[in-house]
Specification:
Layout (H helix, E strand, L loop, with lengths): L12 E10 L5 E7 L5 E6 L5 E8 L5 E5 L3 E5 L4 E10 L2 E9 L3 E9 L5 E7 L3 E7 L5 E7 L5 E6 L5 E5 L2 E11 L2 E7 L2
Antiparallel strand pairs: 1-8, 1-10, 2-7, 2-9, 3-6, 3-8, 4-5, 4-7, 9-16, 10-15, 11-14, 11-16, 12-13, 12-15
């Protein structure tokens, strides 16, 4: 998101965590990361009695594919930009992906959401100013809230009025993306 579908200086990111809700209505998400010299290792967790397929396609080299039926880590050995797609195979509930080794930079994320669900990305940065640009179906409207570690909403924006979201000051931020009218797939990309 899937998309997480959300380029940047390598040294600026301190970490990320992407979350989504698996169900028959929500079956796919994506995100894009850049892994440095040592590559990266991502940890995926999800409810028991569930399954997911993770495909990480680097901009150079062969794709890494993992079919998971229990929480596990996936090694991304190449220093490359990876498009990671998470597909639900079975089960329902919250899944999480976070980096556990290396310092990959989250470049973008995206997913499909409907009025009963939201998308969540926890993002940490040392950069003093980040700008994220959102795209979404024009027949739907989405609200984005940015929550700091103490739980305070530091930014709230209706994407109908502005497609850019600015984060100032560094630290850890949580994106909550919720449809206010309609549903569909949104994508967020960090500006270089």
């Amino acid at each position: 998101m899937m998309i997480v579908a959300a380029g940047v200086a390598l040294a600026t990111a301190a970490g990320f965590q992407v979350q989504g809700n698996m169900s028959e209505a929500w079956d796919k998400s994506s995100f894009r990361i850049r892994a440095g010299e040592g590559g990266a290792q991502l940890w995926f967790s999800f409810p028991s009695h569930s399954g997911m397929t993770v495909v990480a396609k680097p901009d150079t080299g062969a794709a890494v594919t993992a079919r998971l039926n229990m929480p596990a880590s996936i090694n991304l050995r190449l220093p490359a930009t990876y498009d990671v797609t998470v597909t639900r195979d079975s089960g329902e509930g919250l899944w999480t992906c976070k980096n556990v080794v290396g310092s990959p930079v989250l470049l973008g994320f995206g997913t499909s959401v409907d009025p009963k669900r939201h998308a969540r990305v926890i993002y940490a940065t040392d950069s003093q100013k980040d700008i994220w640009t959102f795209t979404w179906p024009k027949e739907a409207t989405f609200l984005v809230q940015v929550i700091n570690p103490s739980g305070k909403v530091v930014e709230e924006q209706d994407l109908y009025y502005n497609d850019e979201l600015e984060l100032v000051g560094g630290g850890s931020f949580t994106f909550e993306v919720v449809p206010t009218d309609g549903s569909g797939e949104f994508a967020a990309k960090r500006s270089e």
